[in-house]
């Protein structure tokens, strides 16, 4: 046991592997489960729950900060290798991510590490001659180059869009009120919700768009809601969507407001790579076990390339809810009012250039890595 090589794992302590990424968490779990290496997990807060959990599983947990060089020296001392990930989203600064990454490279070099797996991404700004700038990619690209330049034995991995993003910031949303407002009597007939529980998303009158947003669980209230909905004349906009008043009459019998969800990936019809970040661990374990084969390599990861419509279709099929592709353009996407909208739109523009991600190599390194279909199947209750 004492002779096992020590791997230092960064980023293993996110609060939950499901709701957040946690590349390092997946790596630490795979290494601990396999047993070939000893694991030292690095965190700024060794008392937090995920740190305790890692300790219970057999990891050494140490306190260090990527902004504090002396703490990194201590964390990497005596290690054979490391898994390194920096978290752009914590500060949203390309410069800071470069500083952290270069500091980690310098310390790895000084400590004589024999194999570092660095989670990088392309320097999009450089690759596109300045046409595109994706700050959370560009900084990692600079760091990739630095690890190689100063001669740290490194394998670079580039993750694709995490499937887990569909449970967090890319969780399929209800169509905005009034926008894809569809009355579908067939859907009403198909779904037991029609009489058991009707969720009234919006009641639009011809004069105003009064919003009633609540779930009605009693059949009586549901019937009342249906009756009210049928009596209130819809706005001209909704009427246009209904196409024919006859349709409304028929719909009045089995009336349901559209419960469909939509994805929001501004990719048009271009396929986008993805994988479950939970499946990363065995990939990194495989790399660390074959240094001769993988040191010096840059490996783009993916378990499949799907269009937005294909992602939506699989979500529909597996969850039983109607999920539609929004077909939003990057231009519309970046106008949205949330922090990071522009940055994320730029990332999708880069994804549309189809960066190199290898499904075959990913599956070779982790034959159990799941396709989107399998992953949604495992997580359908979370949608
Ligand atoms: N979401 C995607 O689809 C995707 C795809 C490819 C790449 N990425 C990249 O993945 C990175 C984030 O990785 P993740 O998803 O695994 O993150 P995460 O689950 O949010 O976890 C962040 C981890 O980083 C650690 N950390 C942050 N700042 C630190 C510091 N100064 N010193 C030491 N540890 C620090 C945290 O440890 P403590 O808080 O315990 O100290 C935590 O364990 C981002 O840079 C992002 O660009 C994301």
UniProtKB/TrEMBL annotation:
Task: Tell me a GO cellular component.
Answer: perinuclear region of cytoplasm
State the source organism's domain of life.
Eukaryota
- Stored CDD domains: NmrA_like_SDR_a
Q: Which UniProt keywords apply?
A: Cytoplasm, NADP, Nucleus
Query: Which Pfam family name is an example for this entry?
Result: NmrA
Instruction: List the residue ranges forming a coiled coil, or say none.
Output: none
Subcellular location field: Cytoplasm, Perinuclear region; Nucleus
> Where's it mainly located?
cytoplasm
* Ion transport keyword on record: no
Task: Show where the NmrA-like domain sits.
Answer: 5-183, 258-352
The entry sums up its family as follows: Belongs to the NmrA-type oxidoreductase family.
Q: What is this protein called?
A: NmrA-like family domain-containing protein 1
Protein source organism: Lonchura striata (white-rumped munia)
Gene encoding it?
Answer: NMRAL1
